Amino acid sequence: MGQIKYSYCLDENNELVHISKVTEENRRSHTFYCLECGQPLIAKIGKVKVKHFAHGSDTACDGESYLHKLAKRRIREKFMSTDNFQLIFTCDVPCQDAQHCPGCMEACCLEQGVRIPTDLKKWKGKVVYDTCQEEVTVGEFRPDLLLTCSMKPDRAPVFIEVYKTHESEEPKVTSEYRIVETMKIKSEADIDNIINRGFIEGENCKTYNFNPTLPSIRKRDVPITRFILFGNGAAKVLSATEYIVMCDKLNQRVHPQSIRELNLRGSGIDIWGINDEEGSLDSYQTGLVYLVKKGLNIKNCILCKFYKYNEWQSTHVCIRYKSLGEQYHFPRQTTARNCPKYEENPILMNHPLEELEKELSEVPL
Question: Containing H/E element for 287?
């Protein structure tokens, strides 16, 4: 029990002392005390083992709260001794064009992990917080550290909580108070990380009830699903997963022989075999049905009521091929142009134009 090792202690003036500041010359002129139990510590500064403070052999201290008390002390001293006290928020920031972008997909049109720096001491040259106190009661709560402004006592305070054994409970985190809570402090190195780098959300702290101003970001690298129609009625889909068309090319055609191009929302991964009776549209069907409803005269087997997925053959077939001839068994898209049995699928064509317009945008001709 007496061999618990620390890098920090308090001296006779209640000042925090690091073992690196203790020398053979000055250790006899100072008395060192444990932050946890207040008992005297011995400065071990030999040349073989790592320098440290240690209790005597008869100590009853178990060191359980040492890191918690050390973290509070060092964070407070850092705040009071520097001109700036950094807190970096880590946020997913939506593209500034997201609300009116026809190709926007919420999951993709975010810049993830954007760092937003702020200073808890000053903002635009003015003091925000200048006081840091330990264990001060505020309402029903008693935060580890409390940041306030001496010049603006009515300003809402900020709580700093040191997570060593228990995280902040729900009544606190759901209150109106803004809170910065450290990640679990497991070692002195975790405290060093905060002191040297400041608070970084997601890395060494969590925050509650803050509302940082998000920066303006314009993304240009979101993949877009592009539907392409050719003059012979055939269609092609470049899915977003192929990363061929990016959002900076929303209004640019990508195929020189296309007569219409559309940007489609979603990934563009089409799972063949969807039950047509359910009325679901894949990317090919969406583009074709939309253009037909916009007045284009298109005959394409994909739109035909007799074009069905055959699970046994794992492909689409024409179910009228026996009367039409074997050459119609596995038709090409353009086979519909000269097919006497071609008939649009009424279930597919039942989708209203207004519904389709929500899922796509036209590329200018």
Answer: helix 283-293
State how far the alpha carbon of 143 is from the alpha carbons of 74, 85, 134, 161, 214, in Å.
16, 18, 8, 6, 28
* Chain centre distance of CA 59: 47
Q: How do residues 51-109 score in pLDDT, each as one tens digit? A: 999 888 777 787 778 999 999 999 999 999 999 999 999 999 998 888 777 677 777 78
Start-to-end CA span in the chain (Å): 81
Q: How far is residue 71's CA from residue 132's CA, in Å, rounded to a whole number?
A: 13
Q: How many CB atoms lie within 10 A of CB 236?
A: 15
Residue with structure tokens 């925050």?
207
Beta-carbon contacts of residue 8 (< 8 Å; ≥ 6 apart): 16, 17, 18, 19, 35, 53, 70, 74, 188
pTM, two decimal places: 0.71
Distance (Å, whole) CA 282 – CA 269 = 8
Q: Which residues is 236 bridged to in the sheet?
A: 228
Domain range annotation of the chain: 5-63, 69-208, 225-362
76 backbone dihedrals φ, ψ, rounded to 5°: -65, -45
CB 87 within 8 A of CB 204: no
> What gap in Å lies between CA 245 and CA 193, rounded to an integer?
42
